[in-house]
Write a structure and sequence with these properties.
There is one protein chain. With 379 residues, the protein is of the alpha/beta class. The protein contains eleven helices and 17 strands. The longest helix has 13 residues, at 327-339.
Length: 379
C-alpha cells in the first residue's frame, strides 16, 4: 500500500450490511487522512461485547453498511495535515473515546468525557461528519469513529495513542477498551481500598478486569456473580474468591450477598449491561458507604430505577466510561505496567482468529464461549 497521505487506498474490510447478519469481507476504498487525522494499518483487533450488542441491536439507529470494531492496535501508515505527534511507523492503540486536550472536561483534569472527540454515534468522523470508507461510490459508515474490522482505517489523531514499539500488538490491543475499562473502574473510579469486600456482576473481560484490579488493590474478598457456571474456575485466576450463580439460590442474589458479607459489600460493579442489575448491585452494597459502579452498556431499557432510601442511607451510584482513564494521557502507563508484568492481559485472550474468520468470533461471543477473540489482520 502507498504511504502517501494523499492517495485513496483499496483494502479489505468486514462490512455489516444489516443488524445481526453475517459480516461480508469486501474490498472498500479508504480516503487519505484529512487534517489532524492519521491512517493506520490495523495489525490486531479484538471483538468487544459492545460491537456485538450494536450489531445485534434493532433499537439503535440502523446505520448500514457499516464497519464495526474499536479495540485495536496498529501502525501509522500516513498522517494528515497538522499532525505533529505521530509519524509513519509509530505503533498505536485506537481510542473509541478521544482526548482533545482543550475542551472543558479535558482541561479540568476531572473527567475523561471529551466534548470534542467523545463517543461518536452517527457512523461518521468527528471533524467533518463524513465517512472515509466507501464501496462502489457509496458511503460505508464507521463505528465509534474507529472501524478496526478493516485492514486499514482512518482516525482522528486525538483518537489514537502512541505506545512503546516493544509492546506485542496482538496482546495490548485489549487495553484499547475492555481490560483498561475494568482496571480503571477499580482503581480510578472506585479507588478500592485494601481489605475491602467487592462484588462483581458479570464475569466477562470487563468484570474480570475489575476483579484483577481489586485483587491488586488488596481486596480481602471478591465475589463474582454470573449465570454461566463455566466461568467459575476461570474467574478464580483473576482474583475472584467466591463465585455465585443466581440460578443456584432461592433468595434474590442481593440478599445472599448481604448475608455472607455482614450487611453488604463495600463496592459493587455492574458489568452486564442491564439497568435492572444496577438496582440489584446497589442493594448488594452496605449502607453508609457502599459504592456501586456501572460499566455495562444497556442492550435495552436505558432508564435506571431505585428506591430513594438506598441513597438516603448513604449508598452511592456512579458511572464509568473507559475506567475514568484519560486515554491519550494514561494508556501508555498501562502498556508499561504490562511490559513490567504488573498487570495480566494474555489470559483474557481465549481465541486467536484470522480476519477471514471474523464471523466465528461473533458466534463465540454470542454463545458465551469466549472472553476475547483477537483477530489477526493479513500482513
Amino acid at each position: 500500500m502507498s504511504s502517501s497521505s494523499k492517495s485513496v487506498i483499496r483494502c479489505k474490510a468486514a462490512v455489516a450490511w444489516a443488524a445481526g447478519e453475517p459480516l461480508v469481507i469486501e474490498e472498500v476504498e479508504l480516503s487519505p487522512p484529512q487534517p489532524l487525522e492519521i491512517r493506520i494499518k490495523v495489525v490486531c483487533t479484538s471483538l468487544c461485547r459492545s460491537d456485538l450488542t450494536a450489531w445485534l441491536s434493532q433499537a439503535q439507529p440502523q446505520i448500514y453498511p457499516r464497519i464495526f470494531g474499536h479495540e485495536a492496535s496498529g501502525i501509522v501508515e500516513s498522517v494528515g495535515q497538522g499532525v505533529t505527534e505521530f509519524e509513519v511507523g509509530d505503533h498505536v492503540l485506537t481510542l473509541f473515546t478521544g482526548e482533545c486536550m482543550r475542551c472543558r472536561p479535558c482541561a479540568s483534569g476531572k473527567s475523561n468525557i471529551c466534548h470534542t472527540l467523545g463517543l461518536e454515534r452517527q457512523g461518521l468522523m468527528h471533524s467533518d461528519k463524513k465517512t472515509r470508507f466507501s464501496l462502489k461510490g457509496k458511503p460505508v459508515y464507521h463505528y465509534c469513529a474507529v472501524s478496526s474490522f478493516s485492514e486499514y482505517t482512518v482516525v482522528h489523531s486525538g483518537c489514537a495513542v502512541k505506545i512503546s514499539p516493544i509492546a506485542p500488538l496482538d496482546k495490548i490491543c485489549l487495553l484499547s477498551c475492555g481490560v483498561a475499562a475494568g482496571l480503571g473502574a477499580a482503581w480510578k473510579v472506585a479507588n478500592i481500598s485494601e481489605g475491602s469486600t467487592v462484588v462483581v456482576f458479570g464475569l466477562g473481560t470487563v468484570g474480570l478486569s475489575v476483579a484483577q484490579g481489586a485483587k491488586l488493590r488488596g481486596a480481602s474478598r471478591i465475589i463474582g456473580i454470573d449465570t454461566n457456571p463455566e466461568k467459575s474456575e476461570r474467574a478464580k485466576a483473576f482474583g475472584v474468591t467466591d463465585f455465585l450463580n443466581p440460578n443456584d439460590h432461592d433468595q434474590p442474589i442481593q440478599q445472599v450477598i448481604s448475608s455472607i458479607t455482614d450487611g453488604g459489600a463495600d463496592y459493587a460493579f455492574e458489568c452486564v449491561g442491564d439497568t435492572g442489575m444496577i438496582t440489584t448491585a446497589l442493594q448488594s452494597c452496605c449502607a453508609g458507604w457502599g459504592l456501586t459502579v456501572t460499566l455495562g452498556v444497556p442492550k435495552e431499557k436505558p432508564e435506571v430505577s431505585a428506591h430513594y432510601g438506598l441513597f438516603l442511607s448513604g449508598r452511592t451510584l456512579t458511572g464509568s466510561l473507559f475506567g475514568g482513564w484519560k486515554p491519550k494521557s494514561d494508556l501508555p502507563s498501562l502498556v508499561d505496567m504490562y511490559l513490567r508484568k504488573e498487570i495480566e492481559i494474555d489470559s483474557y485472550i481465549t481465541h486467536n482468529l484470522m480476519f477471514e474468520d471474523i464471523n466465528e468470533a461473533f458466534e463465540l461471543m454470542r454463545e458465551g464461549k469466549c472472553l476475547r477473540c483477537v483477530i489477526h489482520m493479513p500482513k
